[in-house]
Amino acid sequence: MSGFDVILVGGGLANSLAAMRLAAVRPGLSVLVVEAGQRLGGNHTWSFHASDVPEARDRWLSPIVGHAWAAQEVRFPGFTRYLPTGYRSIASPDVHRHVAGLGGITLALGRKVVTVEEEAVVLAGGQRIAAPCVIDGRGLDRVAGVAFGYQKFVGLEVETARPHGLAHPVIMDACVEQIDGYRFVYCLPYGDRHVLIEDTFYADGPALDAAAAARRVTDYAERAGWGVATVVREETGVLPIALDGSIEAFWPAATADGARSGMRAGLFHQTTGYSLPLAAETADLIARLPVLTTAAAAREVRALGVASWERQAFFRLLNRMLFISARPEERRDIMQRFYRLPLPLIERFYAGHPTAFDKLQILTGRPPIPLHRALQGMSAASARPRRVAEPR
Predict the structure, then answer these.
(1) Residue 327 and residue 204: Cα distance in Å, rounded?
(2) How many of the other CB atoms lie within 10 Å of CB of 268?
(3) Torsion, Cα of 172, 392, 282, 348 (10° steps)
(4) Helix 343-351 vs helix 356-363: crossing angle, to nearest 10
(5) Tens-digit pLDDT profile for residues 306-330
(6) In what order do the strands lie in the sheet with 31-35?
(7) CATH of 6-69+85-143+246-311, one of 3.30.428.10, 3.40.1190.10, 3.50.50.60, 3.20.20.70
(8) Cα Rg, the chain, nearest whole Å
(9) pTM attached to this predicted model
(10) 3 C-beta neighbours (distance < 10 Å), count
């Protein structure tokens, strides 16, 4: 293999979106995607709110969007709320199918990269492939000096024994037993008897008992009256929720360390764990670089990462209040209060762009936790660095 303009190391979400945009915006390029697995995207479902991305970005994402809904819902012991905000879902098989069919894109599947150089990669077995632009998107690497909480989940995509009756996603059903921190169930209805159900936690540690969580999913379906006829697929994940730290921990200041993308570049929403909106923004940025070199990509994507990290200082403060100030049994009360706030505020929060007044509204009012503990969590010194879970 030779003669490539761009090598994308890792075929996860961020690099798959970058391949899509490069093929669309610069169709004359030759792009190689090297992925250790047998298909792009692994075994994942990515979702986003329609308000998370500009309309133009929403349009170019549409070929890989498998399901779209006009609304969503949250459920808490105190209330249920219908949110008329569009919601989109992307499954990894659709990402693989679409990217594999693009002109100018070559896939090297089942090939592990052992060395990433500024203008080349070396594969297991010693093969060296060169390109002027190399971007490393192999997922989150070990991160020292950053304090984390975790969002972790086990999802079962199932065919139900009886129609589930869901017209739109339930992005949080917190009317469930609270264990291992803040727990809720997340449901995406794909058809009358086809639904993805995820048992989800905001927890202090990354340990995940997948078998126990899967049992809770089937129990949830039984209690809802749906039953489970067939399990189509199982999905697990452990996502980092940043409490404090620096973008330098993800990406050193010197661009000589190479170009990165996605979670490896620290590009994710630090409270929700959602990565797609920033991955799509990165893909647009890469595709429109005047000159496609590793140094240029490193400089511009790192600048995006720094800006995102600085903008999300407020999110890290909220995360500290959730994980440090609040006791595990109080976390649901915090989330319940948030979902009583105005819809435009909630949409801006998910999109990662809350206004100063939004922040004031989130922090003021009757607090769900005592003031002295809230103030303790606001201090960055209260967050002790903890190493993130091994990348999945």
Answers:
(1) 11
(2) 26
(3) 20
(4) 110
(5) 999 999 999 999 999 899 888 888 8
(6) 105-109, 31-35, 6-9, 133-136, 259-260
(7) 3.50.50.60
(8) 21
(9) 0.92
(10) 10
Which tens digit of pLDDT belongs to each residue from 77-110? Answer: 999 999 999 999 999 999 999 999 999 999 999 9
Q: Helix H segments across the chain?
A: 13-25, 55-61, 92-100, 210-223, 247-250, 276-287, 294-311, 313-320, 331-338, 343-351, 356-363, 371-378
| Domain residue extents for the chain | 6-69+85-143+246-311
Chain segment 205-227, per-residue pLDDT in tens: 999 999 999 999 999 999 999 99
Mean per-residue pLDDT of the chain: 90
Does pLDDT of 371 surpass 80?
no
Sign of CA dihedral 349, 352, 358, 361: positive
- The confidence score (pLDDT) of residue 376 equals 56
Cα–Cα distance for residue pair 12/392, rounded to 1 Å: 11
The answer to whether the CB of 160 falls within 8 A of the CB of 178 is: no
Return d(Cα 390, Cα 392) in angstroms, integer. 6
How far apart, in whole angstroms, are the C-alpha atoms of residue 142 and residue 134?
A: 20
